[in-house]
Amino acid sequence: MALPHIVFDFGGVLFQWQPPRLLQREIPHVASSPERAAALAAQFFQSYNGDWAEFDRGTVSVPDLVQRIAARTGLAPQDVQRVVDGVPHELQPLPDSVALLQRLHAAGRGLHFLSNMPLPYADYLEATHGFLGCFSSGVFSGREKLIKPDPAIFEFAAARFGQPPGQLVFLDDHLPNVQAAQACGWQALLFRDAAQAEADLQAHGWL
Q: Is 0.90 surpassed by the pTM of this model?
């Protein structure tokens, strides 16, 4: 049987994503300690539900998002705007993950991505990082108006990738997304770091 195609998430897998640090960097006068930053991140991003989920889905504009978060959290709109504008600077490539991606590409593996990513950030990443050319196809939530962990995005992605679900291995750092992929018939692994992911792929015979 052919080796499965490998599907990468972006935030926390291929790109750095640490919301408390983002808040400490952009609004240090509010996120004044690690504890305060962590609590504020939970409130700001709502575990990627609510306002931010709709931004991921591409159904809320940046101005509307800023006003919603400001009203909900009590943050000044200009502080919310600073955080929203600062996200691309937080999304720095993870060198070990990029190296794994490039090794898989050099070996001729089928590679795709599936990311909850608002359209402005998706455009920025594609324009900035040439290594994304390793992927033969991909799905950004903001372009398709679908988000993880909804089953519809996994069905859409499998069709986009041209593979049956059982021939797709998904690497994601968020357990509900891993479980949702598995429920849709995909193979899926919880990502912690590139070394662990490579070892898990090897252990399953997927390398």
A: yes
